[in-house]
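Batch manifest, entry 17 of 40.
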Amino acid sequence: MGKLVVQGGAVLEGEVEISGSKNAALPIMAAAILCDEEVILKNVPRLQDVFVMIDILRSIGFRVEFEENELKIKRENDISQEVPYELVRKMRASFNVLGPIAVRTGRAKVALPGGCSIGVRPVDFHLEGLKKMGFSIKVEHGFVEACFERRIDYVTITLPFPSVGATEHLMTTAALLKGARVVIENAAMEPEIVDLQNFINRMGGHIEGAGTSRIVIEGVEKMQGVEYSIIPDRIEAGTYLVAIAASRGKGLVKNVNPDHLTNFFEKLEETGAKLKVLGNEVEIEMRERPKAVDVTTNPYPGFPTDLQPQMMAYLSTASGVSVITENVFKTRFLHVDELKRMGADIEVSGNVAIVKGVEKLSGAPVEGTDLRATAALLIAGIIADGVTEISNVEHIFRGYEDVIDKFSELGAKIEYVEKEN
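Output type: structure tokens
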């Protein structure tokens, strides 16, 4: 495990190409379990989480080839009903193979998930939904076992909260429940869910409504092989846009779907940044101190929780006081203490952070606590005076492809240093 050494004071200029969406690729890879024929996925980012999912697919009987950004998946052996704990503990999204394995083989046993430490993200919504679809659920010794027990004709599942993971898990599983009609109410509406619907439908599934709060799945008997391209990563795009603005630079962010970031764009413009949308590219310029703004995270189409830490780093040097309210992951403020070590003036009360803008941050040793928090500290290091050393930095490689090269090409001075034994 190494650290990132960031020399502050760089002004980011130039172009950056956005990779495929990790949060779309992972559930689509899990959905490939539904199909015996070869699935070819394009625009797949080369990230640690993707490699973990590849290992999971291989462990349960699939052949997986990954060259550049193209992934080929095909069932090679009988599907194993159990996923090793050492794989599932590495990544929360790996839990979403439980339903697809169970619907294919009648039974699945998967360890309770791991992943980023940003508060409780219970799997109860997943399990209650699977029960309604005819699966028995047993939780013991850190594992969840799902067994298919009864066929259903029709069921409505109302999620207590529009959970992205639960929505993806349940719609994927329901897609292969032949003859069943499953309705998910209060479904998450993220673009990644629309991408998953489009992928499953290309394989022969019958799903409607993704992108709205009501998704209807008509289960089919069999899926077919398909070639499919993953959507661009809206969170990666937002991270580079806010980094360029924070450095008071100018840049062009390419391979973006602007419709996926409308709320975020509005907030950037409120701070004084100038944005110009050019098809699937976004130009941003910011030459002055940002104005303070209030930010409230909400499920899509609200302001993305995955961009809240980066926005906080940006607003830490704004003129005035910003109020950031976190409504998705209530404890997603682990980065606050690290930003304060760099001179930020931030106070937290419950799920609200009060950010009083300071003139400058100063470089300091800090620690990455999760994926997006580490991205926020990288942005803070770029705009700070002096040198910032970010330890526990491996988080960032879970969500940003070629992150050091991309930031360096924009003019950031970043070096990855291996930790000495």
